[in-house]
Input
Amino acid sequence: MNNPIGFFDSGVGGTSIWKEVTTLLPYESSIYLSDSINAPYGEKPKEDILALCIKNTEFLLNQNCKLIVVACNTATTNAIQYLRDNYKVPFIGIEPAIKPAALTTKTNTIGILATKGTLNSALFEKTSSTFRKHIKIKETVGKGLVELIEKGELQSKEMNNLLEYYLQPMVTENIDALVLGCTHYPYLIPQIKKIIGNSIKIIDSGEAVARQTKAILKKNKLLNTSKQTTKHVFFINTNKKTLENLVFNTNNIQKIKIIETAF
Ligand code: DGL
Output
């Protein structure tokens, strides 16, 4: 089936997931919705996050998407159950990868950097409480990071100061794994490494989401078997400059179109 895979995020961060999925599935076309005007979702109440997720889903369904990747931890942890209960297409979500971190830790202490909306969600509480019986989990809200990334400020002084402020206490607590619980944060990995060094493992869920997307497409007989040229369309409701910088250097992707429009 050559209908596109839909992706949405509060902004440009979900492109870190889009890159993993389109690399694993080179014959799939995609439509990506960057709701940057409403970023960050993580500081909003649950009802507002849910309303935005419904709006994004309906936009992608109007574009005939065959499956939707909720490329946002905050949206997944607050809305995925509702979306699965109310729409027919399969949804793939993303949550902080606590399990792989818990399995690798030797110091019995892991760190999680995520939004307030993710860390306060009932779904995160449910997952983390299971692991909390065996390991220490140091949670930190990365307030302000998403806004800077949306502005394209990946390396600014303000970014480095914020990262230092959030990560140094986790290093002091002796974490040996750091879970990136927000799809914007993989773009900060080089800066994060400078602060935490190489002995703390950085874990994000991008590859796992790509594998799951492939498995669910296959299970539902939705994979595109025609090997036609793929098309990737991005819709963004603010200035497209940051998005352009993040996706135009992607390998293997020939056909990318970015549309700035209100939605
Ligand atoms: N990329 C979103 C996430 O994974 C960012 C959330 C936000 O907009 O606060 O959580």
In short: The pocket of D-glutamic acid is lined by residues 9-11, 13-14, 39-42, 72-74, 115, 118, 146, 182-184 (CB under 6 Å). The chain has two domains: 5-94+206-260, 98-203.
